[in-house]
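Reviewers of the previous submission asked for a worked example of the structure-prediction workflow described in the proposal, so we include one complete record here. The input consisted solely of the amino acid sequence. No template or homolog information was supplied to the procedure at any stage.
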Amino acid sequence: MLILVKKTAILCHRWMGVAFCLLFAWWFVSGIFMMYWDYPSVSDADRLERAPFLDPAQVKISAADAWAKADSDQTPNSIRLASFDGRPAYYFRTGRSEAMVYADTGEQQDLFPSGLNLRTAAAWSGQPAGAATVDEVTRPDQWTLEGGLRNLRPLWKYSWPNGDQVYVSENTGEVVQFTTRSSRFFAHLGPIPHWLYYTPLRKNGPLWSKVVIWLSGIATIAALMGLVVGLMMYSPSRRVSIPYTGQKRLHHILGLFFGIVACTWAFSGMLSMEPFPLSSGRPQQGRSIAAALRGKRPPLSQYAMKPPQEALAQLGPAFQVKQLEFSSFASEPVYLATGARGETRVIRMRGEPLESFNTGRILNVLNSVARVAEARLITQYDAYYLDRNRQRPLPVLFVQLNDEAHSRYYIDPKTAQVVGSYRASTESWVNRWLYHGLHSVNFPWLYNYRPAWDIVVLTLMLGGTSLCVTSVIIGFQLVRRKLIGRRAMEASLLKTR
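From that input alone, the workflow returned the following structure tokens.
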């Protein structure tokens, strides 16, 4: 009896090994899908793409008068003019709250009834409103698990026969999530299994974090042990350097080539969950630079020198605006106009619009709050400012400070905003190289000369997948042999009785 218990425990252990090998193999396969398909989300670029153009003739109310309608004794942190439900509207943000006042009538929109939300969803999807089915979402579902979406509930989900699903917040009237049949399908093949982003688990944030950390930690140790054993068993001095045949030989060869990849990918994936206590938080120097570029927020009365409708008309039909931000540069009021593809124009209170701010003036502002060691305009991504899809702005002004952390900042001259930063700290180095560097293989040369990155990463992914598949085959064969042996033992014991 004791022998049977021991054999059963060993068999369960081996079955667990097969299960972990399957999990690690699926991590590699899902990583391939994640190279080209993301988890569904609504970005600022998506909002711009679907927003209607602003018509200067429709803007009748000034921002100061609109803010007076909001009846608040606070000063707004940000102001923008955009379209909502086919009408121009001011959005005033104060802390975490936002007020919306129509720029044509001065009416404040603080309630978002079902009919209005249905029109918003239909306009976003381009589908007829009458064909939509409506569901109220009061608890997280698979597509509303992000922390930011939880704060916007209750949500209304509008679904169409073609598979489109639009989520609208009842509190803000904005589209907060949009999925299609294809985006959901590829999410189930890529991000969801890769991040273990399944609703019952992900709803419990601390538990989900622990599960991912422990599984990736086990994967790291298993890959490291396999790599060590493989190197120990490999002996080029012998006539037969690899003492295996069949699947074991193939697994050994793949392990020698791709074992380090499996180990580093599992380890860097664990680092994405921040399992080790490192210093965090944006450096104070970065906040002071961003604040200096904006300067003191001008009062709304200063924008009266050039009202929004005049600023929009000044750009003319050649540049159609989807959003007009009330901004500032070194305490001077300016508008930042944004078009459909994210292109921008700077509209000053006096003079003609500009494509970008003067880099000399930007450097003068920076020199007033920090010691600048180096500054230059870069037109290609570097090791600390890069984007695989080339969506981050270029050219940018690279600025390195003469401080202890050798802080570097990347400033977009078109908006005078900090769009990237890096400082020589343990946290930044770990995040850049041990996480992003090892996990995404995000090196400038590979990004700048695609499909070089695709070829390298696909080769590594397929090698890691093959390594895991051979592990599954070997493990299954071993368990199968042991299972057959156990049945034979049980049969023999029954005969002896």
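The first helix runs from residue 2 to 34. We consider this example representative of the routine output the project will generate in years two and three.
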